[in-house]
Design brief:
Helix content: 10-25%
Strand content: over 45%
CATH architecture of the largest domain: Beta Barrel
Order of helices and strands: HHEHEHEEEHEEEEEEEEHEEEEEEEEE
Distance between the termini: 40 Å
Number of helices: 6
CATH class of the largest domain: Mainly Beta
Oligomer: single chain
Largest sheet: 16 strands, antiparallel
Number of strands: 22
Length: about 500
């Protein structure tokens, strides 16, 4: 950056007690002449409390993304009147919103030039890779710990091809085609278009999913999943469970922070009769086939700096689900989860994550009983176990300390990637949970408070990848090392 440009950067930064934040750059365009820049500096100094009018907004780097999709995330538009100090905060907010669209690896927003009290704005973006036709290899077990207990058996791998095209038409729409085989079989086709109308508030989606499973979890005993496999049951068919689902989705985003989603689906689940031998309550009434509709609603309020790894802000998600319409399948489910994150000192943050869930009526079949230990809904230190139930609360509280924040050159330079950002955090944590189970009480972790604690290191890098290395202790007197990939909540 030329010295004269740096000079005017520093002047503005001193005037408004702010600085370069998260890669954001506030500066005078280097093409402005010396006399014009000096005059601009004097005007800003004399009129720090005056209103400025946002003039032209220039966007560069968006090879695929439509400009109006980028402008959709701005808390300002051309013609708005705003104080310059407030505009600096708006730049920071707009950058966070654009990063959270998952369309860009880097965003820079700054003042391009002044024309009197008119301020032109420049937005530079670096787009992600959007097309991922990648081979798929993954254990069928619920996490790495569960796979380790099976001795990392290669026969327990699913493999195939996942084709995902994010930003399919440049409007942040997603196309997914998954062809999975191996231990199980899965076919999925899905498309989501969140901004289908001119107002960019309404969207839609649809999808079909077909899956065949040779092995299924038929019951939980001693806080462990009990599986049966069609290969070991002489009278069983090739697949113990077949599943088909077709869905339609509607999205509504009236503002920047709030989203609504409604999903309607029809589902058909068929299980082999061998399943009912091991657990006659897998479905209600000892059924081997259930056809049911499902409708769900989700409200999401997102005001955090970075959802995959939030360190500042507040996020709330709540919703309900209704599954089935008769005695064979009848579930009402409501849930809420939140994230509160604060910076309590320089490079030090405290994050609390809380979730509650309620399933009615309480007399649910095993098919609807999954609670803790599945997916990202787990307690650190209890990864070896699952806890089923119809109501529960979960809290995870973590203190983070940033150790390192650096970038390394990308293997091969491109127009979108020239470096790989890496952040490393040390952490300590305390978790708690409670699960209520009315009918399946043969597990010691239900109907009691659970606690765990530990420490670890997280590595955060591009494409929302988070690697978590943790050593945890639980109230059972157990301890151990656990590894997780991606975000946990």
């Amino acid at each position: 950056m030329p010295m004269k440009v740096l000079k005017y950067c520093l002047v503005i930064l001193m005037l408004f007690f702010t600085g370069v934040m998260n890669g954001q750059d506030l500066r005078i365009d280097s093409t402005v002449s010396q006399s014009t820049a000096t005059s601009t500096e004097n005007n800003i100094t004399q009129k720090t409390g005056s209103l400025f009018v946002i003039g032209k907004i220039f966007i560069s780097g968006n090879r695929r993304t439509k400009p109006y999709i980028i402008e959709r995330e701005f808390p300002f538009k051309s013609g708005d009147s705003i104080r310059l100090s407030e505009l600096v905060k708006a730049f920071e907010y707009a950058r966070d919103r654009l990063i959270n669209t998952k369309l860009f690896v880097d965003v820079t927003i700054y003042l391009k030039s002044f024309r009197g009290f008119i301020a032109d704005i420049q937005v530079d973006v670096k787009e992600r890779w959007y097309i991922f036709p990648i081979p798929y290899v993954r254990p069928v077990d619920r996490n790495f710990t569960a796979w380790a207990e099976k001795n990392y058996s290669l026969t327990r791998l699913d493999y195939g091809l996942k084709y995902s095209h994010y930003n399919f038409t440049g409007r942040n729409d997603n196309l997914r085609i998954w062809l999975i085989t191996g231990y199980s079989q899965q076919l999925e086709l899905a498309y989501d278009q969140p901004y289908a109308d001119k107002s960019l508030k309404h969207g839609f989606g649809f999808g079909v999913n077909y899956a065949n499973l040779k092995e299924i979890n038929v019951i939980t005993k001693s806080n462990q999943q009990v599986f049966i496999n069609s290969d070991t049951i002489p009278y069983a068919s090739t697949y113990l469970r077949r599943f088909f689902s077709g869905s339609l989705r509607y999205y509504y985003r009236p503002a920047l922070k709030t989203r609504h989603a409604i999903r309607l689906s029809i589902n058909n689940v068929i299980i082999d009769s061998a399943v009912t031998v091991y657990n006659p309550h897998y479905f209600n009434n000892n059924k081997t086939q259930v056809l049911y509709p499902e409708i769900s609603y989700v409200l999401n309020y997102n005001n955090v700096d970075y959802p995959p790894y939030p360190l500042k802000g507040f996020l709330l998600e709540t919703g309900f689900l209704h599954r089935g319409f008769n005695a064979n399948m009848n579930l009402w489910q409501v849930y809420a989860k939140s994230i509160n994150a604060w910076q309590i000192a320089k490079k030090t943050n405290f994050v609390t994550q809380n979730m509650g869930i309620l399933k009615l009526p309480f007399d649910q079949p095993f098919y609807n009983q999954q609670l803790f230990g599945y997916g990202d809904f787990y307690m650190r230190g209890l990864e070896r176990y699952v806890v089923d139930g119809v109501a529960g609360i979960l809290g995870r509280n973590t203190l983070y300390r940033e150790l390192f924040n650096f970038s390394i050159p990308f293997i091969r330079s491109s127009w979108s990637h020239d470096q790989i950002p890496i952040r490393i955090y040390a952490k300590t944590y305390f978790d708690y949970s409670y699960a209520y189970n009315r009918n399946f009480k043969d597990n010691s972790l239900v109907n009691r408070m659970l606690y765990s604690e530990g420490f670890g290191v997280d590595v955060v890098t591009f494409y929302d990848l988070v690697f978590r290395f943790e050593y945890s202790f639980n109230q059972l007197g157990e301890s151990g090392f656990f590894f997780h990939i991606r975000n946990d909540f």
